[in-house]
Write a structure and sequence with these properties.
Chain A: This is Peptide/nickel transport system permease protein. The complex is a heterodimer. Chain A is an all-alpha fold. Helices cover 73% and strands 0% of the residues of chain A. Chain B has two domains: 247 residues, D-Maltodextrin-Binding Protein, domain 2; 230 residues, Roll (Dipeptide-binding Protein, domain 3). The chains are: A mainly alpha, B alpha+beta.
Chain lengths: 362, 539
């Protein structure tokens, strides 16, 4: 007896496939990605902890050559740096888990104060740099796509490589040499001139983002001064990312320009410029948003060199000072915060990417 | 759809451009705005609390905002009572200070002997790893019998360095109402509570960034009334940025620490003036008595031959050439363990070695080695540090090597090591001879003798080079407890002569203090106290 065509042998074993997901769901994906941040941070904090101990203690760095070895040892002992390194590690981790970042050794400041005070400066620089990167990278990328395979495209592609490949400190020094020293147009270093900085130091409840503080008190002279000081560091750091954006926009736009809906527009007589700036641009923007998140990590790295070159008193500038002083408490605190920022940014980027394209979860 | 956004972007760019163009003339800031003076430095502040800092950057601030019992007038390095009417030994182990009446801190708190006792007691009890408590090693106890009298009871008799100690990083007087008795107090609290009673008080404070000083009218000490009401102190991490700012007029004075080439370059600018003063920094070579050629633990120990090697090296180095070519005159040759500018400082090595006038003499070096029966060339291993004594150390020691080898008497193996390793290795006799430098804690010749050469027990001196001389110990004990200045001077000179004869170290250079100021700034005072005087400057 044959089975009727409409009869199913075992309906339970053969459920309908419509809507079935072969991998994990979005919720699970987000949870796993969030949990992955913990071991990442743990490994980083551990590495920094032990590496900082390898390069020496702050007492020897500051007092060596002034005290006898016995006095030096006495001070190292008093500070507890001669205890077993694992004891110091677990003590540090215990404090960290309680949210206590400690007090810097070399200048007796709470690490949280250092983070809030100087983190704002780094944030301000990164914002300026992103603006520079967008203003420079996107239009030039569009221009390169518009002029694809012609000489302006070639020039812009080379420029993009130069932006990306030039070490940020070198670019900074070059900009300083040209615009500050030779031409004298812009300040050499710092975030504001002395008088304006004193005014901004006196602001009640400061954001420590100088531009915002200057705008809040309505001091236009200070606003201009702050922007003047920001131009060169922002360009030095922003061009690094501008190079990435330029190439990305160009590549995506060229890809989008070959798609049916653009061809359709072209056949309707829409001009090439209009196609690039209106029709193809928006679909090409998605990957840039994703990359922008990841570029923040790169910018934080670049900020260390930019801030040091321009005396921009942010976290990057401070970490270089604390490294010189072998101040492990400060360096660990700053690295942890930078790592959290990078990890959270990457997490957000991954989640956005997963929302846009579910394939990344599988 | 995009049009409004593009228009907005163009508008923002336009406004920004306008804002910038409107301010373009102010790239060189007017530091004279408000009649103030702006000084730049690359020094760092460790702590405003005297118990928590033992460094030049912090002492600089303390010298402006805290009163001292003893201080020196601008232009001098001799300790005199500052906020005291008298300060002297009332018996061999008691140093009694009488305070001026009516002293107050900027916050209105009274400054009495109780604050003084508090200041010294907390230094000793806190003994912070970053602090200067080691300078108070001779302090047994502090007593405040009445509001204007302080008695320091000392462990050794007639300690002639004690007035100097009171001028040092251990000596600032702090407000017991504000600072903690048991721990280092935060800068923010000290600034907020105005715990100042020096010539200046801090009006605005951003650590290691920008500090603004305002004249404090309640100060009654020997430094006098500041000539400029407001002085701003700008901190740099990069000396090049400071150099550029003083050149452009963004700051009025650059003090500590510009490199030799920067100073040479700035000296050619018409708008600037280079101010130089005596410097307390000593740069020298240490001989390890165990591991140097013919040292006690070498393959062929012979103290006489080891001494001959040291002497021949002293005959061969050309200090003036190093000072001129490497340091462009920012250092000067030194021919003694005690640099010039201190009581009793002499130059015994100038006549004893080389051409007898400070210059090198290869023939004399050859004779010294030949007389001692030493075959040449003598192999030397000289170690220097690449990151602690400035970038020019490499050039300095390259020149030392070149000078020694040019005599044909030495073959030098020159090596450098980073500071952390260097510090540990040097006291383990790893380096037969090596570079060191020294900044004094206070302006007294003893600070170049006791820490270096006093070895009542092995390992006492920080040099750790196994040099030990009973004669030297006696001389140091004598000079450090001799109240009679003339007799003390004699002992100090004798100690220097003994160093020249025995050569446990080979002094090379003495640092100069250098400040670069705009020509319209007057009163830049660089004296042997090594304290930079903000209050003497004006424009």
């Amino acid at each position: 007896m044959s089975t009727p065509l409409n009869q199913v042998d075992d309906p339970i074993k053969d459920p309908p496939t419509k809507g079935k997901k072969s991998g994990i769901g979005l919720g699970q994906y987000i949870l796993i990605r969030a949990l992955l941040i913990i071991p990442t941070l743990l490994i980083l904090v551990t590495l920094v902890f032990f590496l900082m101990r390898v390069i020496g203690d702050p007492i020897t760095a500051s007092m060596g050559g002034r005290l006898t070895p016995a006095q030096l040892h006495e001070r190292i002992h008093a500070a507890g740096y001669d205890r077993p390194i694992l004891v110091q590690y677990f003590e540090y981790m215990g404090q960290l888990l309680q949210g206590n970042f400690g007090t810097t050794i070399s200048d007796n400041q709470k690490v949280t104060t250092v983070l809030t005070t100087y983190g704002s400066a780094t944030l301000e620089l990164v914002i300026y740099s992103v603006i520079v990167a967008l203003i420079v990278g996107i239009p030039l990328g569009m221009l390169a796509a518009y002029c694809r395979d012609r000489w302006p495209d070639a020039v812009l592609r080379i420029a993009a490589i130069l932006f990306y490949a030039t070490p940020v400190f070198f670019a900074g020094l070059l900009l300083k040499l040209i615009f500050s020293i030779w031409l004298g147009w812009l300040p050499v270093s710092g975030r504001a001139n002395t008088q304006d900085q004193l005014i901004l130091q006196g602001v009640q409840h400061p954001t420590r983002i100088y531009l915002i503080d200057a705008l809040r008190i309505g001091d236009w002279s200070a606003v201009g001064d702050v922007l003047q000081h920001a131009i060169l560091p922002a360009i030095a750091l922003g061009f690094l990312t501008a190079g990435v954006f330029l190439r990305l926009v160009r590549t995506n736009l060229i890809g989008t320009l070959g798609q049916d809906f653009v061809e359709s527009g072209r056949s309707r007589g829409v001009g090439e410029f209009r196609l690039v700036t209106r029709h193809a641009f928006r679909p090409a923007l998605g990957p840039i948003i994703t990359v922008m998140g990841m570029q923040i990590a790169m910018m934080l790295g670049g900020a260390i060199l930019t801030e040091t070159t321009f005396g921009w008193e942010g976290l990057g500038y401070m970490i270089s000072q604390y490294l010189k002083a072998r101040d492990f408490v400060a360096v660990q605190g700053i690295v942890v915060i930078l790592a959290v920022i990078v990890a959270v940014t990457n997490f957000i980027v991954d989640v956005i990417a997963a929302l846009i394209d579910p394939r990344v979860r599988y | 759809m995009f049009k409004p956004k593009w228009q907005a972007a163009v508008a923002v760019a336009g406004v920004t451009a306008l804002a910038l163009s409107g301010c373009s003339s102010s790239t060189t800031e007017s530091s004279s705005k408000g009649g103030s003076l702006t000084v730049g430095t690359t020094d760092k502040i460790v702590s405003l609390d005297p118990a928590g800092s033992y460094d030049n950057g912090s002492l600089f601030v303390m010298s402006q905002v805290y009163p001292f019992l003893m201080n020196s007038k601008p232009g001098s390095a001799t300790p005199e009572p500052d906020i005291a009417t008298s300060a002297k030994f009332t018996n061999p182990t008691t140093f009694t200070v009488k305070l001026k009446k009516g002293l107050k801190f900027a916050n209105g708190d009274k400054l009495t002997s109780s604050d003084v006792k508090f200041s010294f007691d907390r230094q000793v009890s806190i003994a912070d790893p970053n602090g200067p408590s080691s300078l108070l090693g001779n302090l047994k106890s502090t007593e405040a019998p009445n509001p204007t009298t302080v008695k320091f009871h000392l462990k050794t008799k007639n300690d002639q360095t004690w007035p100097g100690v009171l001028t040092s990083a251990a000596g600032p007087i702090v407000d017991e109402q504000v600072l903690s008795k048991t721990k280092v107090t935060s800068d923010d609290k000290i600034v907020a509570k105005k715990a100042f009673a020096g010539p200046y008080q801090i009006a605005s404070y951003k650590k290691n960034n920008l500090v603004s000083y305002k004249k404090f009218d309640g100060y009654k000490g020997i430094l006098g009334t500041p000539k400029t009401a407001t002085v701003n102190m700008k901190y740099y991490s990069d000396p090049t940025n400071m150099k550029l700012d003083v050149d452009k007029g963004s700051i009025d004075v650059a003090y500590r620490t510009l490199g030799p080439t920067d100073i040479e370059s700035l000296s050619k600018k018409k708008n600037l003036k280079i101010h130089k003063g005596p410097g307390g920094e000593l740069r020298y070579i240490v001989f390890d008595y165990n591991t140097m050629p013919f040292g006690a633990k070498s393959d062929n120990p012979d103290p006489k031959k080891a001494l001959a090697v040291r002497k021949a090296m002293a005959d061969s180095v050309d200090r003036a050439k190093i000072a001129k070519q490497v340091y462009k005159g920012t250092y000067s040759p030194v021919y003694s363990a005690v640099p010039s500018g201190f009581l009793g400082s002499a130059e015994p090595m100038k006549s004893m070695y080389g051409d007898g006038n400070g210059g090198p003499d290869a023939a004399k070096a050859k004779k010294t080695l030949k007389d001692a029966g030493i075959k040449t060339p003598v192999k030397l291993h000289i170690q220097y540090n690449s990151d602690h004594y400035g970038a020019s150390s490499s050039d300095e020691y390259a020149m030392v090597k070149s000078q020694l080898e040019s005599t044909g008497l030495f073959k030098v193996n020159l090596q450098s090591t980073e500071w952390d390793t260097y510090q540990k290795d040097r006291v383990k006799d790893v380096y037969p001879m090596y570079q060191l430098g020294w900044y004094p804690d206070f302006s007294d010749a003893d600070n170049y003798l006791t820490p270096f050469f006093l070895n009542d027990k092995p390992g006492q001196a920080f040099l750790q080079n196994h040099y030990r001389s009973t004669k030297m110990n006696k001389l140091i004990h004598a000079e450090s407890s001799e109240p009679n200045k003339a007799k003390r001077k004699k002992d100090i000179v004798a100690a220097q002569k003994l160093v020249a004869e025995q050569l446990p170290i080979l002094p090379l250079l003495q640092g100069a203090q250098v400040a670069v100021a705009n020509k319209d700034v007057t009163g830049v005072t660089l004296d042997a106290s090594f304290k930079f005087r903000l209050g003497t400057m004006k424009k």
